[in-house]
Design a protein that fits this description.
about 170 residues, alpha/beta, Molybdenum Cofactor Biosythetic Enzyme, Chain A, 6-stranded mixed sheet, 6 helices
């Protein structure tokens, strides 16, 4: 069997926040550091307010960019009135990956107990791009990366990974 080699992907990071900007976005900084340390490319980065139109405008623009393979969205996945990231992301998805949110909450439960149920983290595919919405806390972002995404964004992960499926995400 031929050796499977690492294939870097191009990942955009969008932070959704009414209080952060690009200069004080610790969660975004930590995530970009982790993904580049893993060998991936930081394709784009932005911070937008907790507004459905702003989130969707950025996501639609990035989904149309050929040089972006995946989009990681940080923040706005809780249950307060301003937490509207899932409502902004879900209508854009061609397919949802419910297993991502389920797995994230299971892993979170092991660390924070029943508070894990407060997360509405989600994943899916839109226009052939992988989209994942993560909670805004740095600990949660790094947990999602370290425990799930770093493995699924690595072609060498067996028995299955998202990178191997990327060429087929636009199939009809």
């Amino acid at each position: 069997m031929p050796e499977v080699i690492f294939q870097p992907i191009r990942i955009a990071v969008l932070t959704v926040s009414d209080t952060r900007n690009i200069t004080d976005d610790r969660s975004g900084d930590a995530l970009v550091q982790r993904l580049t340390d893993a060998g991936h490319l930081s394709a784009a980065r932005n911070v937008v307010h907790d507004e459905i139109a702003s989130i969707q405008a950025c996501l639609r623009a990035w989904i149309a960019v050929e040089e972006i393979d995946a989009i990681l969205i940080i923040g706005g996945t809780g249950i307060t009135g301003r937490d509207i990231t899932p409502e902004a992301v879900r209508p854009l998805l061609d397919k949802e990956l419910p297993g991502f949110g389920e797995l994230f909450r299971m892993l979170s439960y092991q660390k924070i107990g029943t508070a894990a149920m407060l997360s509405r983290a989600l994943g899916g595919v839109s226009g052939g791009k992988l989209l994942f919405a993560l909670p805004g806390s740095t600990n949660a972002v790094l947990e999602a990366w370290d425990e799930i995404l770093v493995h699924q964004f690595d072609r060498r992960t067996r028995p299955g990974n998202l990178v191997a499926l990327m060429p087929r995400l636009k199939e009809k």
